[in-house]
Design goal:
mainly alpha, about 65% helix
Length: about 90
């Protein structure tokens, strides 16, 4: 591999790293917002927000292959995991 190829490879790597950092910042902002909503919500709204937080942050489901359905009264994710996630937001 010649040194001439290294420049474009470094530029591409830098662009990818910048895009990943921007996406991580946006995801963090969404999580913070959803945590605030989750804390102040009740019932079906809280279940929907908890499911969104769990999926976005790759939390472990209470039942491995469970799928959310509209009108579910229980979250797919353990409430203690959601509380722990939101404690840091």
């Amino acid at each position: 591999m010649s040194h001439r190829c290294l420049g474009p490879a470094l530029a591409i790597t830098a662009l990818l790293a910048t895009a990943a950092a921007a996406r991580a910042a946006a995801d963090s902002q969404n999580t913070r917002h959803d945590c605030r909503l989750w804390r102040s919500s009740y019932g079906l709204e809280q279940v929907e927000i908890a499911n969104r937080l769990g999926a976005a942050n790759l939390l472990t489901k209470e039942h491995n292959f469970a799928v959310a359905s509209p009108g579910d009264t229980r979250s797919l994710y353990n409430s203690s995991d959601i509380r722990r996630l939101c404690a840091f937001q």
